Every structure is written in C-alpha cells, then in structure tokens.
Amino acid sequence: MISRASEIGAIASREIKKWYRSPILLFMTTIQPLIWMSLYGKAFNLTGLFRIPEEILKQLPPDTTARFAAIANEILARFFGSSDIDFFSYIAVGMMGVILLFTSISSGMSIAWDRRLGFLNKLLVAPISRSSIILGKVISSVVRGVTQSLLVMLIGLALGMKLRIAGTAEFLVALLTLILLGASFSSLIISMTIRLKSWESHIALNNLLTLPIMFTSSALYPVTLMPEWLKAVAVFNPLTHGIELLRQALLLGSVYYSQEMLWHLSILAAFASAATFLGIYLSNIALRKM
Amino acid sequence: MRAVEASGLRRVFGEVVAVDNVSFTVEEGEIFGFLGPNGAGKTTTINILTTLLKPTAGTATVWGYDIDSEPDRVREVIGLVPQELTVDDELSGYENMMLQAALYHVPREEARRKSKEILELLELDKFAHKKVESYSGGMKKRLEIGCTLIHEPRILFLDEPTLGLDVQTRAAIWNYIRMLVKNKGVTIFMTTHYMDEADNLCDRVAIIDHGKIKAIDTPGNLKSSIGGDLIELEVSEPNGCSEERLRTVAGVVDVALNNEQVLVKVMRGEEALPMIISELLKMGVGIRRVEMKKPSLEEVFLSLTGRKLRDTEGSKEETARMRIAIRRVRS
Fold first, then answer.
1. Partner-chain contact B53 A118, CB within 8 Å
2. Strand B2-13 to strand B16-27: parallel, antiparallel, or no bridges (unpaired)?
C-alpha cells in the first residue's frame, strides 16, 4: 500500500512540478474561462430584465408594483435558485466548473507526450503497478484543476462576484465537488486517449469535446430554461451536476436545498468512480505488454 | 549464475520477423554487445528482455527470473537506458534521480545519499540542481545512465548508448561504462551499430543481421577468424632474410618477401610481432619500419553476411518498413 502511494505520488509530483514551473501554461488555461466570465457574465444583466421604466412605475398603484416585484422574484428564484442573484456570480461559478473540464482534458495529452518521448517506457520497465501510472496522472490533473478553479474564484471575487456560503461544511462540499469533477474528466479523457499516438489527434479530440460538454451543461444558463431534448442531455452531463452543487454551496447561502444537493453529489460521485475505474481498466489493457 | 539466458527468442510484427530464433547467454560481470545494422532486431531483443514486449516464441531468464512469468522480479534487477533520452528536461538532475528512486521504491534517505554519490561518480554533481534542458547531450546521457543505477540493478540494458554523440563524448561514455562495471559490478547488455564501439567496449559480441545471430565471440576471436593480422616490415638487409625461418614462428600463417618489404600474416599479431622481430635480428636483418594492421569487425561482418555494415545503413526503406510494422502492432 505504502509503496503504491509513493509510486503514484512520484508520478503526480513530476507533473505538478512541471506545471507550476511554467506559469505560461497556468495563464493560458485560465484566460479562456475568464473571457467567458467577464464578457458573457458582465454583458448580460439578469435583474435588468424585470426593471420597469420610471414613468410607467409612477402611473401604477403601489399595490401592483409590489405584486409585480413578487412575481419577478419568483421567476428568478425558480430559474436561478434565488431572487437575490446576479448573473455575473452565476456565470463565475459556472466557469469554476468549466476550467476543470479544460485543464483535465489538456492534461490527458501528457500520456501521448510521454509515449513519444520514451518516458512511458521508462515507467513501464519500473516494477510499479500499471494503474499507478494512470492514478498519478489523474491526481496531478485534479490538483491542477482545483487550484485553477479556486484561482478563477479569486479573480471572480475581485471582479465583483458575490459569494454566500453558509458554513465550512458547504465550502468543503464545494471543494469535494471540484475534486470529483476533475477526477471524472481526467479519467474520462485518459480512457479515450490512452491509445492515441499523435498529439494532433489529441488536439482534435480536445476541440471536439470541450465546447459540447460546456454548452450541454448548466454552466451558462439554467437547465430549467433548456428545451426538453437538451435537458435530457444535460442530466447526463457530470458538469451540470457539479456546477449545480457549486452554485448551491457557494451562492445560495442558507437557502440551499440539501435534498437536491445530495442527489447531485451522489450522481457526480458515481460518475467519478465509474470514470476512474474505466480509466484504470482501459489503461491496464493498453499498457500491458504485447 | 548467468545474467541473461535466452533461448529461441522470436518476435514477429505482422509479416516482418524482427527477431528470428535468437539464443545466447550473458555471463555475470561482462559487457555483452549486439552488433548489427539498424533494423536488425537489436531493440526488439532489448524490449523483450526488459519486459516491454512479449516474444512470439522462445523463453528467456534475466538474473534467473523468467521474463514471462516473473516480470516484476525482472524489472527490479534491471535498468534500461533506451535509445532516446527520457530524462525530464524540465526537472533538475537531482530531481530526475529522486523520481527514478521513487519508481523503484528506494527509501528517501537512501535515495538522497545514492543520488549524491552517483552524480559525483558521473561528474554531474556541479549541475545537480540545474534543469536538465541546460545539459549537453553527453551529460544527459550520463544522467540517463546514472538514473538507472539508483536501485542498484544487476544488469544494465543500454540501447545504442552513444547514438548521435560526437567522438570525444562517445569515448567518455565508454569510460564511464567501463568504470561502472568495475566499481559497481554491473553486467552490461548493450546494442550498437558502431564497430569501434563493439570492439573497444564489449567483452563478447553477437553479430546480428535480419533478426538472426551470425556469430558470438570476443572481438579478438571474431577478428582472428578472418585469418589474422597483417605485419608489414621494411628491412635493410633483405638478402639475409629467410622465409622458411619466419614461417616457424608461432602464429605465422603466411610470409611474402618483396625486396626490402616483408609481409607476414599472423594470428594474434601482438604476440607474434616481438618473436618475428627477434627472429629477423638473429638473421642479421636490420629493421627500418614496422606496421601492423588488424582486421576490424567490419571485415568480420562482411564475411558473415556478405555485405558491409556501412552499406546496410542505406536500406532505410527496410528500416522504415520495420518501424511501421512495430508501431502497428503496438497500437
């Protein structure tokens, strides 16, 4: 057990060292969610939808305006979980999930690189378990993803994101969510790329996967607003469950719905473990000697 | 105990037979070399012995462990230095050593001590904490070899250890390899397509071509199998020289007199030359100049395969075809 842990640790720490020593990589992978967040999140003023022009407001009886406000709040609460929410914060949390998707998918490329550089053979002639190689990669990718996600959160805060966290437990749930999202996506991508030889095909796969996963999740808009067919897709997208969990834990303060959180959390946990086992299983086959 | 014992190894990639019924043994403590052109099956043999590839047929043991049924045992007693550089450019030399140590479960304290010792041994201690990307080609190769020593392997597999290095660096790497054998007592299995490398470095050489072993012996014996060395003397009193008396000297195969020039073909020229000189002096013949030509492994390869080692490098198509076949099977 201890030796397994040290193998995994050695492989993971190699990747992490390489990552934090090249700040350009950190910068490049963080920049894209930031652009989404600031352009999309800041450009769209959610509560502005329901603002009544001053001259109309004057003509209405106070009773009517109060009722209109109540209806508007209810609509907002139904779609976004709370009436007291701004779209920028909503998008910023979505991007905390999206950046995990981006970093995990790009980290899967490291196996193709290792194979090309001969480093993979070096790992394969060592008396280590074949699954340690994959687990090391997944763990390093999770560490990178979670760090970058928290970085996005800090930048979001600096740009005016409003966090409402009920307590430590809720923050820990958010952290666990990030870890599970990272494990899901990096295991999934490793399962798909373990046999890829060229990294050109890897880039193609990257482009093929990232945007569809992002747009079929609730990163940019609530599931309740989606057409039925998209809803059906979104429910199977782990990113949806992750982002919903993050929003409930980070934005809704004490009004979060624990029943719903438990549901999202169990689906996400199930997905993460299934993806990890699939990754280990497929790479055991791919890395076994032929 | 035998360090490596291979019998009937065969490996087929699609339709290409990369290794064809190869059998040999490597004794403990020797430097054993596979000499052959690109695509002869050298790397495939190394990959089979280091548990990276399965043989299509045949068996092999490494340090007494079966490569098929005890791969993890084999992995513990070997170190592999592949053709390409696999040390991580973005880490320091010391970090590369520590990474390797963790992969072989060497305890941290011990790993630190040994890394220091090995880096000193390979004269890399001054650069231990510099990123590997700043190293020269020869330094990277040294580090690569050093990394594989951290778990004290019994056998080192070196695949073309001086490929692409300049002449001086190659000679330096040879010295390091000899030193490791002497200081650490490791056994070396190496491949090369450089004749001088096989000749200078290896205790025994297997000549391999098209996946088949053509001959295994010491470089000296391989060369003497060609028919010996040629000694060329320029003498001052050719009339007193007797061909018959020269023929009685031990090891002499053939003698030819041509005025002031005496040509003697001998086995083991180093031993025969002093005797020939003293025999000539006894005859009262003065000697102006002596030259000894030794046959190289090039001639050995030529006589065994019917072609020159250098010429075979021209068959790039063949090599490329082999590589494609190997890639296909591995994917």
1. no
2. antiparallel
Instruction: List, as one string, the DSSP characters of B280-295.
Output: HHHTT--EEEEEEEPP
Concatenated DSSP letters of A124-169: HTSSS-HHHHHHHHHHHHHHHHHHHHHHHHHHHHHTT-------HH
Interface of B with A in 20-59 (CB under 8 A): 50-54
| A231 CB-contact burial (10 Å; exposed 0-12 / middle 13-18 / buried 19+) | middle
Q: Which of A280, A277, A274, A272 is closest to A132 using CA atoms?
A: A280
Residues of A in contact with B329 (CB under 8 A): 290
Using DSSP bridges, classify how beta strands B31-35 and B16-27 pair: parallel, antiparallel or unpaired.
unpaired
- In a 10 Å sphere around its CB, with 0-12 CB exposed, 13-18 middle and 19+ buried, how is residue A232 labelled? exposed
Domain ranges of chain A: 7-43+86-288, 46-83
| C-alpha torsion angle, residues B297, B303, B304, B306 (rounded to 10) | 120
Query: Mutual orientation of helices A87-107 and A238-250 as an angle, nearest 10°?
Result: 140
At A166, which amino acid appears?
A: A
Question: Is A1's Cβ below 8 Å from some Cβ in B?
Answer: no
User: What strands, in cross-sheet order, belong to the sheet with B287-293?
Assistant: B252-258, B261-266, B229-235, B287-293
Reported residue count of chain B is 331
B324–chain A Cβ distance below 8 A for any pair: no
Non-local (6+) Cβ contacts of A16 within 8 A are A140, A143, A144
Cα B17 to its chain centre, rounded Å, is 23
Q: Using a CB–CB cutoff of 8 Å, tell me whether A125 touches chain B.
A: yes
Each residue's pLDDT expressed in tens, for chain B with a length of 331 residues: 799 999 999 999 988 899 999 999 999 999 999 999 888 899 999 999 999 999 999 999 999 999 999 999 999 999 999 988 889 988 999 999 999 999 999 999 999 999 999 999 888 999 999 999 999 988 999 999 999 999 999 999 999 999 888 888 889 899 989 998 998 889 999 999 998 999 999 999 999 999 999 999 999 889 888 777 888 888 887 787 888 888 888 888 888 888 888 888 888 888 888 998 988 888 888 889 998 887 888 888 887 887 777 655 545 555 665 566 555 555 4
Q: Catalogue the E-assigned strands of chain B.
A: 2-13, 16-27, 31-35, 57-62, 65-66, 78-81, 155-159, 187-192, 204-209, 212-217, 229-235, 252-258, 261-266, 287-293
Q: Between A168-193 and A109-117, two packed helices, what is the crossing angle to 10 degrees? A: 50
* Residues in chain B within 8 Å Cβ distance of A11: 103
Identify whether the C-beta of residue A100 lies closer than 8 Å to the C-beta of residue A147.
no
Residue in the structure block whose two tokens are 């391999």? B208
Question: Tokens 């190699």 — which residue?
Answer: A14
Cβ of residue A51 closer than 8 Å to a chain B Cβ: no
- Which residues on chain B are in Cβ contact (under 8 Å) with A128? 103
Question: Does any CB of chain B come closer than 8 Å to the CB of residue A117?
Answer: yes
Cα A127 to chain centroid distance, Å, stands at 35
